[in-house]
Write a structure and sequence with these properties.
Blueprint lengths: L12 E6 L5 H9 L28 E4 L12 H11 L4 H14 L15 H15 L3 E5 L7 H18 L2 E5 L3 H4 L5 E5 L7 E5 L1 H7 L1 H6 L20 E11 L8 E10 L2 E5 L6 H8 L7 E6 L16 H7 E4 L12 H11 L4 H14 L15 H13 L5 E5 L7 H16 L3 E5 L3 H7 L2 E4 L6 E4 L8
Parallel strand pairs: 1-4, 1-5, 2-3, 3-4, 9-13, 9-14, 11-12, 12-13
Antiparallel strand pairs: 5-6, 7-8, 7-10, 14-15
Helix pairs in contact: 2-3, 2-4, 3-4, 11-12, 11-13
């Protein structure tokens, strides 16, 4: 990021927009004073918070990171929220009332002693926000704070942030690709430019910016409030069975059943979307379907091309057998990165399959181009933006050309442009006969590409045909 001139006044509520990789998260980290010193990178110009360098004003800022896993520091929910308060020297008699208020505000209705290790991704996102709101900072910095939340949770969290900002007079800066969520509570929109030019593309009152800069915003990948998602045509190949789960009980441990009595069917050439509130077992089900967790009860059987030459239960397969058949994209991209560069990361799977060098290079070059990662081929995966990390994790899964692709929140961190390109890529795989399972809270994604939807609500799971244009069975 460069050529950036900004003046944000006390009490303003700012929505920070821009293409994936434009530097939005870097700016927030700089404001929060957590970018490191001069030895960690280059910086030009001056950045001040309350007239001081950000590192000297850290107590004024509360930052919710894009990756909630990176913000969990304690083993129990209550202790995690209390951690920041203790560091600020809040009186002990006040700490626990603030902890309870913050957890209630973000809709995380769990005992203080509940293990943080047992939280879902969405619950961890709520926990991170609760920790910041409990501190009542003068400056609230939020990086994609609702990306892993169900729709009701999105509204709850937004309203909780608005209440705290109103009560405390705090300044708010929030990064969010989906504009409509935050428009009701912000009074200023700033759009950052990407690429070498950098700078500010647009800045002003939300309605004025969105109306006067429409084409600029669209070109910059911003989701416009009235923008409809791209809708895929229906599948052209007949469905054929790949995976069938009957009366499944699932959980991360034998003594911790999350859901039971699940019937799930995955077909080649179809996209199955799994939706539902946070904490109902969506990610656990995805890992079970991918053969990475053993069902606690019931039966999960692979069939057709997925099971050729192997026993039908994926959890019994060797890693090499899974690699050639089922690829998984975890909810947290960092959990699957193994190397020091983007290109090397993409080579891991094809190398394990002992593909010829020419074929490896062709596959990798194609994925780098399609997913807009060419300019990052030599970069360390851990230095990418959240949206870039997600696209890389999808690319690594596709590089082995699996017969079944299991994705957890595949559209996290994507601007409108990269969202459409990712959706079209997955539809192309579907039309080539790949079976796809996608855990997602993204209703636009479900409407655009899903052929069937499994909703793991608090009641009995419900399977339905997707309602997007061109859907068929």
């Amino acid at each position: 990021m460069q050529h950036l001139d900004l003046d944000i006044r006390p009490g303003e509520r700012v929505l920070l927009l821009g293409a994936s990789g434009a530097g939005k998260s870097t700016l927030l980290h700089g404001i929060a004073g957590v970018l490191g010193g001069d030895e960690d990178g280059e910086n030009l110009g001056e950045l001040l918070v309350d007239g001081r360098r950000p590192s000297a004003a850290r107590g004024r800022s509360g930052l919710v990171l894009q990756d909630p896993d990176a913000q969990v520091v304690m083993a129990r929910v209550g202790d995690d929220v209390a951690f920041g308060l203790e560091n600020l020297g809040v009186p002990r008699e006040e700490i626990w009332s603030r902890v309870g208020q913050a957890l209630s505000a973000v809709g995380l209705d769990l005992p203080f002693e509940h293990s943080t290790a047992e939280l879902s991704g969405g619950q961890r996102q709520r926990l991170a926000l609760a920790g910041v709101l409990a501190m009542r900072p003068g400056l609230i910095l939020l990086d994609e704070p609702t990306a892993n939340l169900d729709p009701e949770g999105v509204r709850d969290v937004r309203d909780a942030v608005a209440r705290v900002a109103e009560e405390t007079g705090a300044t708010l800066i929030v990064i969010e690709h989906r504009v409509p969520v935050w428009l009701p509570i912000v009074d200023r929109v700033i759009v950052l430019g990407g690429g070498s030019a950098g700078g500010v593309l647009a800045d002003g009152v939300p309605d004025v910016v969105l109306a006067s800069q429409r084409s600029t915003l669209r070109d910059g990948g911003v989701w416009l409030p009235d923008e409809r998602p791209w809708l895929a045509p229906g599948p052209t190949l007949p469905a054929s069975g790949l995976l069938a789960g009957e009366a499944l009980a699932i959980g991360r441990r034998p003594d911790a059943v999350v859901r039971e009595g699940l019937d799930v069917h995955v077909d080649a050439g179809r996209i199955l979307a799994i939706s539902g509130p946070n904490g109902v077992g969506k990610s656990t089900l995805a890992l079970t379907l991918a053969g990475l967790l053993r069902p606690l009860d019931g039966r999960l059987t692979a069939s057709g091309t997925l099971a050729t030459g192997l026993r039908g239960e994926p959890w019994r397969w060797r890693s090499r057998d899974l690699l050639a058949r089922i690829s998984t994209v975890f909810q947290s991209p960092e959990h699957q990165f193994l190397t020091g560069s983007v290109r090397a990361e993409l080579e891991v799977g094809p190398r394990a399959l002992k593909l010829p060098e020419t074929e490896r290079r062709t596959r990798i070059d194609e994925l780098l181009s399609v997913l807009r990662l060419e300019h990052l081929a030599g970069a360390n995966p851990f230095t990418l933006s959240g949206g870039e990390k997600r696209r890389l994790s999808v690319a690594t899964a596709i590089a082995t050309r699996p017969r079944l692709l299991v994705l957890d929140e595949p559209t996290f961190g994507q601007d409108a442009t990269t969202w459409r390109e990712l959706a079209k890529l997955l539809v192309g795989l579907r039309d080539d006969g790949v079976g796809i399972v996608a855990v997602t809270h993204d209703d636009a994604f479900i409407e655009a590409v899903a052929d069937r939807r499994l909703d793991l609500g608090p009641a009995a799971p419900a399977v339905s045909e997707a309602t997007g244009r061109g859907r068929n069975s």
